[in-house]
Amino acid sequence: MAPAIPPPPRPPQNTGAALELLVHGVGGATPQEMLGDPRTVRVTGDATAAVYRRTEDAHGEKHPERYRDEPVAEAYCWSGLTSGNGSRALWLLLLPFMVVNLAHWMRPTAAGRTRAVRLYGVAVRLVALSLTVLLTAAACEVALDLVAWQCAGTPDCSGRRSWLGFLSSHQGGWWSQPGRRLALAATVPAALVGLLWYLSNRTWSAYESQSPLDALDGDGYDPDGTEEAHGPGDPDNADDPESARPVPPALSRPGFWYGRRLVARLRAAHTAAGFLTVAAFVMGAATLHDRSVGSSVPPVFGLVIQGALVLCAMVVVWVICRRGRSESVRDNRVDGALITYLPGSALALLGLAVVHAAWSRPEWVSSGSLSGETAFRLLALGQGLLVVIMALVARSLYRRTPEPRTTLYGLGGPSVAMLACALGGVMTGGVAQRVADWLDGPGTPGMGRGSIIEGPPVLLSWQASVIPVLLLLLLVPVLFLTVRTARRARRMGPDIEAEYAPEPPDPARTRRIARIRATAALTDSAPWIVGVVSAATLLLGAAAVAGSWASGEVPGLATDGAAAPVESLAEAAQSTGSWLIGFGFILFVAGGRRAYRDASARRTIGILWDVGTFWPRAAHPFAPPCYAERAVPDLASRMCAWTATTKGRLIISGHSQGSVLAAAAVWQLPDSARRRVGLLTYGSPIERLYGRWFPAYFGAVPLLGLNRSVHCWRNLFRATDPIGGPVRLSTDPDPGVDRGPLKDPLAYGRTTALPLPEPILGHSDYQADPVFAKERAALLEELGPRLPRQGGDVLEKGQKSSGRSSG
Fold first, then answer.
1. Where is the composition biased (Acidic residues) (predicted)?
2. Rounded Cα distance, 426 and 204, in Å
3. Above 50 in pLDDT, residue 465?
4. Which end of the chain, N or C, is more open, meaning fewer C-beta atoms within 10 Å of its C-beta?
5. Is the pLDDT of residue 244 over 70?
6. Kind and range of the H or E element at 473?
7. In sequence order, what are the residues at sequence separation of 6 or more whose Cβ sits closer than 8 angstroms to the Cβ of residue 292?
8. Residue (of 104, 734, 800, 697) closest to 386 by Cα position
């Protein structure tokens, strides 16, 4: 007898419950502001991120008849992950690390170019490694060269600083020998590296270590059955979302928001690189002395340490290049031996280098400056070469799969990486120049006119001299955009008056609306500003390296002491640039200090934080932590649990950056939950910013796939919004997801319904527009039937979108 065929599973019963899950945008918001009620209760979550409801809605699922016309409202507040703590504003000092991490995610769409994608990822990670070495080298330049070597070795300088008395060379104490001064000063950059390691490890444990639910792994794809990063499921090493294989979008993979293994590997490698940089500075000075004059230190000791430093540096580079992200599965493994022994070995080598330098050398006298010039030149050349390689690879990928909306024809990632290097150079030069000026007193370091110390490396002075030139070049596109915006605003006047007809025209009101709309359109021109600045930075940086290498002197320093016109101009550029570098660094420090004390400033800086730290730390482990690795699993887990429990309809409603989190969370849902979810986005940068800058993850193909997989989607936008915009998905017979541009302001002048002047809302308060409630109601209708009203109404049947795919 043949076995009985089991009946097909019955579809889940719709209880009639409906939920709107609100997700706020950048800058943060309180549950009371999001829900419009001072009485709220926490449903689930902790003090960092949680879901809240109105007190009266705490058990709304038990009484669905009360919410027939509108859903139960929940608010997911994630501001505690970002700008909630003022101390996190100090992460702005590590802004280059955050920027280079963004460059990793900006690669163009790839179609089967596995080797090119891997090369791009390796190049970005090497640029990130160079920034760690650059920051550590800057700390070594200040602590070892300027303070311990130059100032402590010059009686005129150390005599002005009482705290340097025990290090002064003319005191003749135990610490007066140059090697021992360097050994003591090496603790400063070593402590900086240790602090970065601690912050990276602590923030990972606090924010990014929350593993997603196992139930969310149902859509994972692992083509070769392994978790290794070299499998076809890894976009950074062997595959990509647009590969010829039937792989899901990258943001739907179960391991995308959990990069524990890679972050741990990168943290170990970068920590080791920092310790090795400090050891190289200490060993370089001692070795140069031992080679020039006889020393009592056994030569074999120094050779062994130098060989070990080179070997350990090679291991660091190998670790950086060996593997990238593993996204096809959630990678819970940790390379314990590597994480433990690599930084520990580098720290041990630093200890040996310090002992070697502190060996007694009575004949050793410090003069001039340490040999850091070559190190800074090689770093600058290496960064420029890596950026060029990134540009060639990115351009090749773009030509293979061109997308017209991609920024700078695929060169957005290399341009941003170049900006990260420029920011690192500005911060490095700013610290070195300001400390040198402070130590030198009334003199100008390196200029020979009243200066008592040599000052920082010549390359930093040359880099400072090109900053005024860069600012002058930047004035050209800025003036062009200013003129074009003014003309565009004038042309908008008649259209705005016709839009609000038959209300009588008001020239002042028209000009204000037109100016705001024209200014909001400037966001679309930002890529070209970035491209111009990056190209000019690359060319001027190469010129600065060539000039410092050829002359070996500070620009504008005439050999005969007489300043010719050209030398005077060069000296003026160098002085102005040096001042601007120092001023820029002071702004970084002052901004972080002000944000720590001032809530409004903390909110403004928090916007930069929120946009820059959406992506996981895939290139630099010392970048600010990724809040999405906690927020996206939170949202996906909440939606999955609620739909499974209630079998009801759910709308996830995201504003601004919250819309990006909402879309990423929907991507992570299994099919069973996604069928009951509708997506409502407003003021969303999902295509205008993310789709253009990150085409491999939010480009036209991934967004079209999201539209087809989610049950229904609406996107609201305004012409006055400088951040949000349309999604630009319009495929026949699908009418698309965009609804707009919404009218802003709602009324041109005074009306009977609105007797007071209406504000121009721009990016805020989309719920105030009546269209918002209509589109939310339409989404609920598409998701399924409602409960009948009490009194005998027939249950509404059918769905408007029965022909749409549910994923």
1. 216-226
2. 28
3. yes
4. N
5. no
6. helix 467-499
7. none
8. 104
d(CA 794, CA 71): 20
Q: What is the C-alpha radius of gyration for the chain, rounded to an integer number of angstroms? A: 30
18-82+627-783 adopts what CATH topology? Rossmann fold (3.40.50)
* Residue at 333: amino acid letter: R
Q: Which pLDDT score, from 0 to 100, does residue 612 have?
A: 80
CATH code 3.40.50 region(s) in the chain: 18-82+627-783
Cβ-contact 237, 250 below 8 angstroms? no
Q: Measure the N-to-C terminal CA separation of the chain; round to a whole number of Å.
A: 38
Q: What is the amino acid identity at position 32?
A: Q
- Which amino acid appears at position 25 of this protein? G
- Which tokens is 801 given? 């979108």
β-pairing, 50-54 with 40-45? antiparallel
d(CA 167, CA 508): 69
Q: In whole angstroms, how far apart are CA 313 and each of 133, 273, 306, 346, 421?
A: 11, 7, 11, 9, 21
DSSP state of 649: E
- Residue 705, SS3? helix
Burial of 20 (0-12, 13-18, 19+ CB in 10 A): buried
Query: Is 223 within 8 Å of 669 (Cβ atoms)?
Result: no
The conformation of residue 802, written as its DSSP 8-state character, comes to: T
Q: Who wins on pLDDT, 389 or 259?
A: 389
pLDDT exceeds cutoff 80 at 704? yes
Tokens at residue 479, please? 């003036």
Helix (H) or strand (E) holding 42: strand 40-45
Q: Please tell me the total number of residues recorded for the chain in this structure.
A: 807
- Residue 138 neighbours by CB under 8 Å, 6+ apart: 427, 428, 431, 432
Residue 413: pLDDT over 90? yes
CA distance 78 to 73: 16
For tokens 């200029």, the residue is: 447
Nearest partner of 365 among 152, 184, 139, judged by Cα: 152
Sequence-distant (6+) residues with CB within 8 A of 55 are: 37, 39, 40, 41
Q: What span, in angstroms and rounded, lies between the C-alpha atoms of 710 and 651?
A: 11
Sequence letter at residue 192: L
Handedness of CA 714, 718, 722, 726 (dihedral sign): positive
Query: Is the N-terminal amide bond of 527 cis, ω within 30° of 0?
Result: no
Query: Could you tell me the CA-to-CA distances from 726 to 688, 689, 696, 714, 742 in Å, in that order?
Result: 7, 11, 18, 10, 11
Give the side-chain half-sphere CA count within 13 A for 616. 27
Which tokens belong to 654? 């995201």
Buried b (16+ CB within 10 A) or exposed e, 260-299: bbbbbbbbbbbbbbbbbbbbbbbbbbbbebbeeeebebee
